[in-house]
Write a structure and sequence with these properties.
By secondary structure, the chain is mainly alpha-helical. It has one domain. 64% of the residues lie in helices and 5% in strands. The chain has helices spanning 2-9, 31-54, 56-80, 89-109, 139-144, 147-162, 165-176, 184-214, 217-222, 227-234, 245-262, 269-279, 294-299; strands at 116-120, 125-128, 133-138. It has a three-stranded mixed beta sheet with strand order 1-3-2. A hairpin with a 4-residue loop joins strand 2 and strand 3 (133-138). Helix 2 runs antiparallel to helix 8 (184-214), helix 4 (89-109) crosses helix 6 (147-162) and helix 6 crosses helix 8. The termini are far apart.
Length: 300
Amino acid sequence: MTSQLQKMRQPAAMKKTPGIAPELDTLEPLPREKRRTLACFALAGLECCASFYLSPLRSVTGLTMTMAIFGGRMLLNQFIYRTRETSDPDIQEKLTYLRKENEKLCARMGLRRPPDIRIHPKRTATLRMFHKDIIAFSSDYLQYKTKKELRAILGHELAHVKLRHSPQNIALLFLFSPTFYTSFLLGFLPAFGTLMYHSRQNEFQADRVGAVLTRDPETAAADFSGAKSRTKRYGKTWKRYSISKKTWAYLRLPVRFLRYTLFQRHPDHEQRYERLRKIKAPPQRYASDSTKSRFLRLLV
């Protein structure tokens, strides 16, 4: 009897996804992904302890203000991401399709409480409310995306829920909150940079797990395929100012580094496109990873 109950509690067996390397064909975090998450939390814990040691009063002030702002934001999200109805029959049909696929994918990945599917005028996001998860689709996505593309986006957002990225971000935010008012260079900048780095790694992880979950990495990669042409178009700005391409690259390097490390929560579309293309590759493509140094493999 107990063995039957254990089988019922286990998620549905995942079939091998064609074209995905065996070491990537899993819904669980990979070892390198776990190491990056642990490194972020270790840095957050060290900075939190150092902040309380250097300035206890400022640390308590930062923690209190972060809790107040976070609680107000959660209450505001209840109103912003409220349940909305639409009169467009095409959008209603796609919403019905997404809700059915949501139940199927949640059963496949072992989620007991499927998140709510809602409409938002502008944003597509995954949110953790007080008692449940919400996946909001923007009205533009529902209007112009096909059902296959919406299913790939749903798999990406469900991967965030499965891997508990929202609770991780909340925990990191509260661990770093005492350092926000202690020191700008030694506290705020490393904390903010680590939060952005962790958020970008979560996006890469959700891309991989979503592609495995939906068993359709081609559609997920096609969503970012147009980013390469945009990058090439904006990359030729150096010709307007009559300077060499190498000089322009050196001039842009500090600005791009600061923008990418401190102010960008999501990776570049070109990077996500290249990684999703590698997911479709056979296992032999991944033999080159062993030649990289451990330091480079940790950063990539």
